[in-house]
């Protein structure tokens, strides 16, 4: 088992990292993880844990289920990690946390801004509102590989033609996700290829996350957030939108007010964590997508997975 040394950043994955079977190995190995899954089932009033472990895939991938499922697996992993380190006389003591899109809510739970049941209900509602917005304003997303930011911004501008198309996720240098109305998205995909993108791939999602098509969902979430009691972050949380640390409740409310309609600036977020001294990044949750992105953003930092820290790894159900 690798030891946790240096200044630690915990990072939490977003939607798309879900797969049938996720969390099962943690559930079997860790009493702390079992408590999280049992609590999630109780809070939501249906067996979310069984959906994570057994599927079916289409039900797990429905955004209304995927969002609370990923949050639950990530928090279960965090609790299992704390349990494992405590047995070895160590503790998780991060200097900063962050999450990609949905993962930002996991980071806020980890930082003590909201408790797990509140976070769970909030992302379940976030999923419902985003699904509703997607049904009212169908859209899509596509990954663009190998095109610089300025060229892609020009592509989105030129492809809009009265439709909505925008940069949604700046994941790492040379890997960006665009989001918007289907016709504008298809135009932008063709233009990106014509202007030198190495690869353009439509994502299997009918929701234009992190675009203006989510404005109504954003307003509804903002109304919920106003009523939700929040605590001061116990650990700085680097925000997706601003790529700066949220240190106060007001910082959190301002970030989440527009979270689903504004871009995820992951490249800048990782750079900010490195600037604050983070040297070791631990990806807490299903998959290892973020670790790969972080290595492309900064080759000098260490990235660790849960299995590196002695926790059992889930096997993707084929």
Quick summary:
The protein has 318 residues and is α/β, with parallel strands linked by helices. It is built from 13 helices and 11 strands. Helix 8 crosses helix 9.
Question: Could you explain the architecture of this structure?
Answer:
This protein has 318 residues and is of the alpha/beta class. It contains 13 helices and eleven strands. The chain has helices at residues 24-29, 31-44, 48-54, 57-61, 63-87, 103-110, 116-136, 149-160, 182-194, 215-227, 249-256, 266-275, 289-297, and strands at 8-12, 96-99, 139-145, 165-172, 175-181, 199-202, 237-238, 245-246, 264-265, 280-283, 302-304. It has a five-stranded mixed beta sheet with strand order 6-3-5-4-9. Helix 5 (63-87) packs antiparallel against helix 7, helix 7 packs antiparallel against helix 10 (215-227) and helix 8 packs across helix 9 (182-194).
């Amino acid at each position: 088992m690798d030891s946790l040394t240096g200044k630690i950043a915990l990072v939490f994955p977003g939607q798309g990292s879900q797969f049938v079977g996720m969390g099962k190995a943690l559930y079997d190995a860790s009493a702390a993880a079992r408590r999280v899954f049992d609590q999630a089932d109780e809070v939501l009033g249906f067996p979310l844990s069984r959906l994570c472990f057994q599927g079916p895939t289409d039900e797990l991938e429905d955004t209304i289920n995927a969002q609370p499922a990923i949050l639950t697996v990530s928090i279960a992993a965090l609790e299992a990690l704390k349990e494992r380190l405590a047995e070895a006389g160590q503790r998780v003591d991060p200097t900063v946390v962050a999450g990609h899109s949905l993962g930002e809510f996991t980071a806020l739970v980890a930082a003590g801004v909201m408790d797990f049941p509140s976070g769970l209900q909030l992302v379940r509602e976030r999923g419902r509102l985003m699904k509703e917005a997607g049904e009212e304003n169908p859209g899509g997303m596509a990954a663009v590989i190998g095109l610089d930011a300025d060229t892609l911004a020009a592509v989105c501008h030129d492809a809009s033609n009265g439709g909505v198309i925008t940069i949604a996720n700046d994941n790492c240098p040379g890997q960006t996700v665009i989001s918007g109305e289907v016709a504008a998205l298809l135009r932008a995909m063709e233009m990106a290829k014509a202007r030198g993108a190495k690869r353009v791939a439509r994502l299997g999602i009918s929701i234009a996350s992190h675009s203006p098509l989510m404005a109504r969902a954003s307003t509804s979430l903002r109304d919920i957030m106003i009523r939700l009691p929040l605590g001061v972050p116990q650990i700085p949380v680097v925000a997706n939108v601003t790529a700066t640390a949220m240190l106060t409740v007001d910082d959190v409310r301002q970030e989440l007010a527009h979270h689903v309609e504004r871009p995820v600036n992951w490249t800048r977020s990782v750079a900010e964590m490195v600037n604050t001294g983070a040297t070791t990044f631990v990806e807490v949750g299903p998959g290892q997508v973020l670790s790969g992105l972080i290595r492309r953003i900064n080759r000098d930092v260490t990235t660790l997975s849960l299995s590196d820290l002695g926790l059992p790894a889930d096997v993707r159900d084929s």
